[in-house]
Every structure is written in C-alpha cells, then in structure tokens.
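Exam revision sheet. Question 4 asks you to relate a sequence to its structure. Input first:
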Amino acid sequence: MTTERWELEKKSLAELTDLLAQAGHDDSAQAHIYKAEFERRRTAAAERAADAAERAAEATVRYVRYTLGVVISASVAAIFTAVAAAATWYAALHPR
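Answer key, structure tokens:
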C-alpha cells in the first residue's frame, strides 16, 4: 500500500481515484491519506483555474483599453476630417 505523499504524487488521478474507491468508506489511515491527496489535487486545480481566470480578466481589460484608445483616436480623426471638409466647403462657397 502507498502511504507516502511523494509516492501518491507519481500516480495519475485515475489511479488515485481507484485507490480511493478500493479504500471504501472506512476510517482507515490509508483512506484518509487518499482522500487528502485527492483534495490537495482538487484544491490545486481550483487555484490554477482561478489564476487562469484572473489572467484572462487582466488580458480582457488590456484589450478593452486598447480598443477604447483606437475608438477615441478614430473619433478624433473623424472630427478633424469633418472640420477640414467644412472649412474647404466654406472656402469654396465664400471666395475672397
């Protein structure tokens, strides 16, 4: 039987689940070890998922800021273009 944590770390999650199923619902030390390792892995997976979600949120914020900058730049360019067009029309309609 595997009792050392480093021995359990080498096992796949499927193997660990099989060991946990074989231990059954008894309160043996072995069952507690398997349950603890399973919970440790589940917690680690949840932490990795939370970190990934946080990185994705940060990337989304950067993308939104970039997009907002592009939209503002395009709006300013459109305003300058409209002002230039209006000035050209005014100059064409009111020659000196």
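Marking note for examiners. The chain has a mean pLDDT of 88.
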